Amino acid sequence: MNEVLKVHELTKAFGSTNVLDGISFRMKEGEVISLIGSSGCGKSTALRCINFLETPTSGQIEFMGQAISVSCNKRGESEIVNASYIRAFRQRIGMVFQNFNLWPHRTVLGNVTESLVYVLKMSRKQAEEVALSALSKVGMASFRDRYPHQLSGGQQQRVAFARVLAMRPKLMLCDEPTSALDPELVGEVLKVIRTLAEEGATILLVTHEMRFARDVSNRMIFLQEGRLEQDDTPEELLRNPATEGVKRFLSSVMPASA
Amino acid sequence: MLADFWILMVERGWALALLRGGAVTIAIGLLGMLLGFVVATPLAVLRWQKVAVVSQLVDAYSIVVRGVPGLLVIYLLFFGSVDMVKTVATTFGYQDSVDNAYPYIVGVIAIAVISCAYSIEVIRGALQAVPYGLLEAAKSLALPTRITFSRITFPLALRLALGGINNVWQMTIKDTSLISVVGLQELMRTAAIAAGITRSPFLFYCIAAALFFGMTAVSQTLFSRAERALNRGFGGR
Amino acid sequence: MNLDIVTYAIPFLLVGAKTTLLIALFGIVFGFPFGIVVGLGRGSKNRVLRNICDTYCAIFRGTPMLVQIFVIYYGLAQVGFIRHNPVLWWLIGDGLNAAILAVVLNTGAYTAEIFRTAFLSLPKGLIEAAEACGMSPWHVFTRVKFPLALRQALPAYSSEAAIIVKESSLASTITVLEITGYAKRLMSETFAIMDIFIITAALYLAINVVALTALKLLERRLSFVR
Hints:
The structure holds 3 protein chains of 3 kinds.
Chain A (H helix, E strand, L loop, with lengths): L2 E12 L2 E12 L3 E5 L6 H8 L7 E6 L2 E7 L5 E4 L4 H7 E4 L11 H11 L5 H14 L15 H13 L5 E5 L7 H16 L4 E4 L3 H7 L2 E6 L2 E6 L1 H6 L4 H10 L5
Parallel strand pairs in A: 3-9, 3-10, 7-8, 8-9
Antiparallel strand pairs in A: 1-2, 1-4, 4-5, 5-6, 10-11
Helix pairs in contact in A: 3-4, 3-5, 4-5, 5-6
Chain B lengths: L1 H10 L2 H35 L5 H14 L2 H23 L2 H35 L2 H9 L4 H31 L11 H12 L2 H30 L7
Helix pairs in contact in B: 2-3, 2-5, 2-7, 2-8, 3-5, 4-5, 5-7, 6-7, 7-9, 8-9
Chain C lengths: L2 H40 L4 H16 L2 H11 L4 H5 L1 H8 L1 H26 L3 H9 L4 H31 L11 H12 L2 H30 L4
Helix pairs in contact in C: 1-2, 1-6, 1-9, 1-10, 2-6, 3-6, 5-6, 6-8, 7-8, 8-10, 9-10
């Protein structure tokens, strides 16, 4: 299968602390990978570096054969090679945020059509068709004319998924998509992710839902203090934790399955 | 008593004069506010983006104008421009028409200079108040910067700014009264003339107050309505 | 900048500054407590009191300060009853007194609004907690409500204080020469419009900086987080 994403020696420093310390991994088409680790371990930062919402301090991101690399010059500033690819990356990489980030002044439909019209240059009519089919995929088509504040958190997150799906992304980044939701609303969002995974979408997921991550992922990557400690199938990672850190983390988040 | 009032207002024509003065007040207030806002918007955006040098200049302008009395700004503009305008007008032979229009033009500019400083702060504050996550969402969808600004940032900021814009407008309409001290015949000046001629300052200043009150009350109502209409999508706000 | 003009203008402006400071000081000293009382009146359970306070605030916030000062100084002087009452006549017959009265009444209305919202924004739970431990209403007010509302209101009051300094300039329209009054005279005397403006603006900014710093210090002293 084709390789979609290659992350090479990704490093991100805030001041003198390294939030990410030389992370490398690869993703094939159709793979679902969960990034796990305790809070503050750099999972979200790693995700945000991939579509350059955060500029890495150094390292290389290769997506669909195009590479953007960042190096640190003598003055300590980041220098981006091929910065012009960033928009192309973002066009094909969808991102779902913890807080949904739906635009409050646009309807459900408007939220989805915006990028279709202004990035993919579709006509309004065509954009609405595409948007509606994406919305029905997440079961939100009947809410097309509502405003975000009229929806529950779970519904908002499903719209956020539709907004990304409509762009037909080659890779989806999901940054703790259920963390801001009330417990009873988590299920509907997980169902959307599961469906997408089963249909062969390529998903890089940051989550605290360990059981879900185990069920849905092909691989799990454990980060601790910015370092990649283990990259394995869920079965392997749960059965044979590579380091003390992984072991400690697993016993604290899912004691029953230990 | 009522008959006296009737004679004063209708037969002597003061009611009409006051209404005309009120119209001038509204016109100058609206034009000044509009001009100020139009100039303030790009300045606020530059300030928001922290463009070097321009930001500092905008800050300096805003601090000075907001820190000194409106009256002082008006004196500066009127006294400072008299000679210049006279020279220009005489050279081109438009002495008369300029003499008539001059106070109105400078009046509008003075009001604009004052309201602009306040508008800058309101717009900049609103731009900063747009949640960053909403802009990140736009970025992550590869929306071009210009589109993000015109379709996401600016419309959201405008809604957030509406309350502040209302405050600036309320202040501006009241500030127009200050122009009367340099002889422009708006509501306040008309009331002062009427007060002098009829020797009833209490009556005429109270009427002026009532008219100003009417203006601010009506615009307050209109703004609340606009705010409600624009704030769809903001839930309880 | 012409140095002669500067040395000529500054003594006049400093004399004006004394008057400006006097008006502003009275505005704060009387306007602040007065505003708090009116603000409380607007939250009162007594309907008559509430309506009176609401109306007062609406009128003084809805009309220009210039009109207010003219009504007080020129308008009220026409009313016979006031002319013949020595106390009232002292209050509005003299330009400076009338200016101070106008400033106090004007800032009172705005201060009342600041405090009304401050009292409204107090978390209910804190007041319930005070009531639950058996405090009398008076104690709830003096020990809990007021101290909290004061901290809430102080930042907004700082800008109101700066406005008082600026509004005091309207005294010049009723013959009281304060900074702006002198500035106008100097402008028409010397024709050095820009020079005079710069000196005057600097003076106002200096007064504002001092006032805002003082209030900032007070704010910090009252703040829980140090």
